[in-house]
Amino acid sequence: MIDFLISLYPWTKAFHIISVISWMAGLLYLPRLFVHHTEQSTPGDSKDEVFQLMERKLLRLIMNPAMVATWVFGLMLVLTPGIVDWTSIWPYTKAAAVLGMTWFHHWLGYRRKDFVAGANVTSSKTYRLMNEVPTVLMIIIVISVVVRF
């Protein structure tokens, strides 16, 4: 198994990066959709239906598979010998930020359910503010992995 992971390392790393980019795109776009959904529609109107369709497809067809792929390829990288130095701090800061990103993903999923139920109480200002969360987490992850402090 170990030799197999070592031989797959370049492919695993490439697919991990691809899945992270896809996941990040959704994490950055869905809150913006929520801003516009909140400001430009009311429950049950035609715009509400269009926003819900866009949000559902983004979450289910892009973000969920990308998150799962990110985790699978990330765990494969963690299990590849020689990739992670567990005596350093960076694996733990990266892991904490990835867990934060996963929490944010699920938070967005719950907010989507609020729109479906016609019960959104979150303001567009809050969605704008929350839109910065994945950017901050991405910065932590990239610095952790590249600088490896």
In short:
The chain has 149 residues and is mainly alpha-helical. It has one domain. It contains five helices and no strands.
Q: What keywords describe this structure?
A:
elongated; 82% helix; mainly alpha; single chain; 149 residues
Descriptive notes:
By secondary structure, the protein is mainly alpha-helical. The protein has one domain. The protein has five helices and no strands. Helix 1 packs parallel to helix 3, helix 2 runs antiparallel to helix 3 and helix 3 packs antiparallel against helix 5. The chain is elongated, with a radius of gyration of 18 Å. The two termini are 29 Å apart. The mean pLDDT is 95.
Rg for CA atoms? 18 Å
Query: Approximately what portion of the residues adopt beta-strand conformation?
Result: under 5%
Mean of residue pLDDT values: 95
What is the number of E strands?
Answer: 0
Mind describing the biggest β-sheet?
none
> Between the first and last Cα atoms, what is the distance in angstroms?
29 Å
Helix content: over 70%
- The number of domains: 1
Tally of helical segments: 5
Unreliable parts = none
Overall geometric form = elongated
Given helix and strand content, the structural type is mainly alpha
Write the H/E string, N to C. Answer: HHHHH
